[in-house]
Design goal:
The chain is mainly alpha-helical. It has 16 helices and no strands.
C-alpha cells in the first residue's frame, strides 16, 4: 500500500513540475515579445519621460535590457542545465585524458563550450585535468574556451547583434582557444606549473552515468540552477546594464566612433587593455557591448573587449596564479591577448 502511495506521490510531483515548466515557457514567450511595448508604455506614457531626452533613453535602455537579459538568462540556463545533466565535468576530463595536442586542443575547446565552468572553478578544473594526464596545452584550450565561448554569450550576442555576428564570435573564440592552447602546449612549459599540481592524486573512478537521472530531477535541477545563478550574478548584471544605459543616454554620439571607430588602429588594443581589469561575465558585459556598438564602435573592437573581459579577467588570473608560476601566467595572458587582438582586427576587416 505504501509503495503505491509513494508512486502516486512521485507521479504527482512530476506532473506539477512539468506543469510549472509549461506555464513558465508560455510566460517566457509572452514576456519576451511584449517587453519592448510594455516598457514603451511604462516609461514614456505612464511616467512621462521624453523619448528623445537622454534621461528617457537611459531609463528605457536600463529597464528594457534588464528584463530582456533576465528572460534570456533564465531560459538559457534552464535549457542548458537540463542538457548538461547528461554530461559531467568528470566525464569531460575522461574524454580529454590521453588526447594528443592538435586534435586534443580542438576537442577541448569544443567541450569547453558545453561543460559547466566559470572563473571560480579555474583552479580545481586545471588541477583535475593535469593530474589526470590531460596535456597542459589541451587543458589551457579548455580553460580559454569555456568562459569565453559559452552558450550564454552566444545566445545573448545572437539576440542583440544577429546570427552573423554570433557565428563569427563562436568561430573566432574557438580559434583563439585552440591556437593559444596549441602554441602554449608546444612550448613545453610544464616546468612553470606549480609542482603540487602534478603530485595531486585523483581518487574515485567513473561517476554513475548521468543518463540514469529521472526527468523530473533534471527539470528540478534546471529550475534550481536558474535561481542560484541569477542570485549570484544580479549585482554585476545591474552594474553592467547601468553602465550601458549611461553610455547609451549621455555619451556624445561621435565620442566612441572618433576614438574607437574603424579608422583608429589602436582601438582594438585599447579595448583589450580596458577589458582585462574588469570583472564580469557574458551577461554583465553584454549591455556595455551593445551600448558601445550603438555609439559607433566597430564590432571587432566590441568583440575584443568582450573576449578580454570574460577570458582574461583579473580575478581569474589571480586564481590561476595558484597553479601557474608568474612566467607561465604572463605568457598565457600574452598569447591569449594576441589571439584576441587578431580576432578583433579580422572581425573589423570582415564586417
Amino acid at each position: 500500500m505504501s509503495v503505491s502511495v509513494s508512486k502516486r506521490g512521485t507521479k504527482a510531483n512530476a506532473s506539477r513540475l512539468w506543469g510549472f515548466v509549461l506555464v513558465a515557457a508560455f510566460a517566457w514567450v509572452v514576456g519576451y515579445f511584449v517587453n519592448g511595448r510594455l516598457w514603451d508604455r511604462v516609461v514614456f506614457d505612464l511616467f512621462g519621460f521624453d523619448p528623445e531626452s537622454r534621461l528617457g533613453q537611459a531609463v528605457h535602455f536600463f529597464v528594457y535590457d534588464t528584463t530582456k537579459i533576465l528572460l534570456l538568462l533564465g531560459g538559457i540556463i534552464f535549457i542548458v542545465t537540463v542538457m548538461r545533466s547528461f554530461v559531467t565535468v568528470e566525464r569531460t576530463r575522461k574524454l580529454l585524458g590521453g588526447r594528443r595536442e592538435g586534435l586534443g586542443n580542438v576537442a577541448a575547446a569544443g567541450l569547453g563550450v558545453v561543460t559547466p565552468f566559470c572563473s571560480c572553478s579555474a583552479v580545481p578544473a586545471f588541477i583535475g585535468f593535469v593530474a589526470a594526464g590531460v596535456p597542459l596545452g589541451v587543458t589551457l584550450s579548455f580553460l580559454i574556451a569555456s568562459p569565453m565561448v559559452n552558450e550564454v554569450a552566444v545566445i545573448l550576442i545572437f539576440g542583440m547583434f544577429g546570427f552573423k555576428v554570433a557565428a563569427m564570435y563562436v568561430v573566432f573564440g574557438l580559434l583563439v582557444a585552440i591556437i593559444a592552447g596549441y602554441v602554449l602546449g608546444r612550448m613545453r612549459l610544464e616546468r612553470w606549473v606549480e609542482p603540487f599540481v602534478f603530485e595531486t592524486k585523483l581518487r574515485g573512478e567513473v561517476i554513475q552515468p548521468s543518463s540514469d537521472m529521472p526527468w523530473d530531477d533534471r527539470l528540478a535541477l534546471g529550475r534550481q540552477e536558474v535561481t542560484t545563478i541569477i542570485r549570484k550574478i544580479w549585482p554585476y548584471l545591474l552594474v553592467g546594464i547601468a553602465v550601458g544605459a549611461a553610455i547609451h543616454g549621455w555619451a556624445p554620439e561621435d565620442l566612441f566612433s572618433r576614438w574607437a571607430g574603424e579608422g583608429n588602429p589602436l582601438a582594438v588594443p585599447l579595448a583589450v587593455v580596458m577589458g582585462i581589469p574588469l570583472y564580469s561575465n557574458a551577461a554583465g558585459v553584454m549591455p556595455i557591448a551593445q551600448a558601445l556598438a550603438d555609439k559607433g564602435v566597430a564590432l571587432g573592437t566590441v568583440l575584443a573587449f568582450m573576449m578580454a573581459v570574460v577570458a582574461l579577467s583579473l580575478p581569474e588570473m589571480i586564481l590561476l596564479r595558484r597553479v601557474l608560476q608568474p612566467k607561465l601566467l604572463g605568457l598565457f595572458v600574452a598569447v591569449v591577448g594576441t589571439g584576441i587582438l587578431l580576432a578583433g582586427y579580422l572581425f573589423n576587416a570582415v564586417i
